[in-house]
From TrEMBL:
Top-level taxon: Bacteria
CDD domains, per database record: E_set_Isoamylase_like_N (cd07184)
Protein name per Swiss-Prot or TrEMBL: Isoamylase early set domain-containing protein
Matches recorded under Gene3D superfamilies: Immunoglobulins
Species of origin: Streptomyces albidochromogenes
Amino acid sequence: MLERSRRKKHTEITFVIPAGQACGQVSVVGDFNDWQPGAHPFTEREDGTRSVTVSLPKEQRYGFRYLAHGDYWFNDGQADGQDGHNSVVHT
C-alpha cells in the first residue's frame, strides 16, 4: 500500500506492507535509490504493519519492488501500476 503526502516541491511516499507479510528484514528498492538493497529498510509500526517513507521529486514515475530476507522479491498489489516485473509509483 502507498500513502502520499504532497509538499511544495516533493512528494513523500510511505510504502506500507501488511502485518505478517514477508519474514525478516524488508527494504524497498527502485529507480529512486539505484536498486540498492537495504537503502530504505522498513520499520515496524504499532499496528504490526511495516513502513518506510521516501521523499521524491514531484510529477515523476518510479519503478520499485520489495526485497525481503533470503532474496525474496515481491510487488505492491496496490501500486499505481506495473511495468514488467516492477511496481510503479507516480509522485
